[in-house]
Amino acid sequence: MNLQSAVNLEDLRLLARQKLPRIAFDFIDGGVDDELCLKRNREAFAQYRLLPRYLRDVSRRDPSVVLFGRTYSSPIGISPTGLAGLWRPDADLMLAAAAREANVPFLLSSAANASLEDGMRVAPEHVWFQMYCTSDERINADLVQRANQAQPGVLVVSVDVPVNSNRERNRRNGFSRPLRMTPGVVLNAMGHPAWVLRYLRTGGIPMMRNWLPYAPEGANASQVADLYGTLTPAPMISWEHLRRIRDAWKGPLVIKGLLHPDDAREAARLGVDGLVVSNHGGRQLDVAPSPLEMLPAIRAAVGDRVELILDSGVRRGSDVVIARCLGARSAIFGRPTLYAVAAGGQAGVARALQIMRNEIDMVMAQIGCRRFEDLDASYLWTGAPRPAESGSSTCETSLPAVVHTAQRCG
Ligand SMILES: Cc1cc2nc3c(=O)[nH]c(=O)nc-3n(C[C@H](O)[C@H](O)[C@H](O)COP(=O)(O)O)c2cc1C
């Protein structure tokens, strides 16, 4: 199989598995503990059915969405992922360029290897900046200041990593944080000489460029990674920090990682413009609900004032459509674009985005929807009434209760 013969995102995952040493592939692919959350994120989508409508002239379809005043060609985007330079040198810039070409947002992580400023040079209209708060208030303030200077479209603050999590694949493979490429780890990679050669040719561990300004003069990549490891995670971060960021940042502010409707309500009160509803792709708390399960309750909590973007487990165009029907404006995904960049660089990411675009378009036509923005809960079929219920006006439901109740009870 090669890039062009990859017919879905899973094919890109399999290609990446061939190309990457196990330690690298597992770092992307893995979850925490028993990886139940990882599975739950996929299973949540399988709970839903889309009920097609026909005879509606779907010869022209419009998948575009408006987010924070800007029109994007598709209701998808690239989730922030740190350390992407490890899978391919300059991976962040390839992700940014592919997002620019597809006219979708790219959330550049503060833990990326490219800096915010590098990303903005490649895709000034498409980069959003995702930051983690650190234990150093001056650095937090400086990151926001840099954002004000560079002007990414959106500032995204991820809040779902209060402490590091139990990623057992990484522990078994010897992948540690701060990252250290020991000879043992490199030896483990020898079955993938192309990756090893690239890794060695580019000087080993890639620099986490966003943190270079805070490191001592002349610090190497390993020392900068160590510094990052001392500054994050920052378990003391609270709503007060968010309030300060809201005051200091002039553009649209999004929080990534809230799952509780009360937290969503608090964010709305604070003046946050959007939420990425996410469980970090099942990489933090194995017993967390899937974001899709929480989406209707979060939508109800924040009303129409806050944009919702669904993240975690999105692998099919139909997933994006279902998320929209449940109240999200768009959906983003993390692992698939990393598999894609590992498998084929910028062309790989373009292929991943194209696959998703095609799938969304096809599903829209199949269900009789001309404009993605018109999708709502009326497209969801939520289970046949049980025989005893037929013809009754009861609002008792089978599956999934929130939407079913909303549809039948108005
Ligand atoms: C390798 C890797 C690195 C990640 N790094 C970050 C990060 O730096 N910041 C962040 O907010 N989320 C990070 N995430 C989480 C993603 O942004 C996203 O929430 C997750 O990948 C979504 O799930 P999916 O992979 O099933 O699409 C990372 C995920 C992966 C797989």
Put simply, the count of helices is 16
Side by side, the strands of the main sheet go: 4-11-10-9-8-7-6-5
> Which ligands accompany this protein?
flavin mononucleotide
Oligomer: single chain
Proportion in β-strands:
5-15%
| CATH homologous superfamily placement of the largest domain | Aldolase class I
Helix-residue proportion: 40-55%
CATH architecture level-2 label of the largest domain: Alpha-Beta Barrel
Instruction: Please state the CA-atom Rg, rounded to the nearest Å.
Output: 21 Å
Succession of helices and strands: HHHEEEEHEHEHEHHHHHEHEHEHEHEH
Find the count of extended strands (DSSP E, 2+ residues).
12
What is the makeup of the main sheet?
8 strands, parallel
Task: Specify the overall morphology.
Answer: globular
Output mean pLDDT. 92
Summed up, the domain count is 2
How far do the termini sit from each other? 49 Å
Q: What structural class do helix, strand and pairing data support?
A: alpha/beta
Unreliable residue stretches: 389-399, 401-410
CATH class of the largest domain reads Alpha Beta
Protein architecture, described:
There is one protein chain. The protein is α/β, with parallel strands linked by helices. Helix content is about 45%, strand content about 10%. The strands form three sheets. The chain has an eight-stranded parallel sheet. The chain has a two-stranded antiparallel sheet with strand order 1-12. The longest helix is centred in the last third of the chain and has 33 residues, at about 335-365. It is globular and about 65 Å long. It starts with 8 loop residues before the first helix and ends with a helix. The protein binds flavin mononucleotide (FMN).
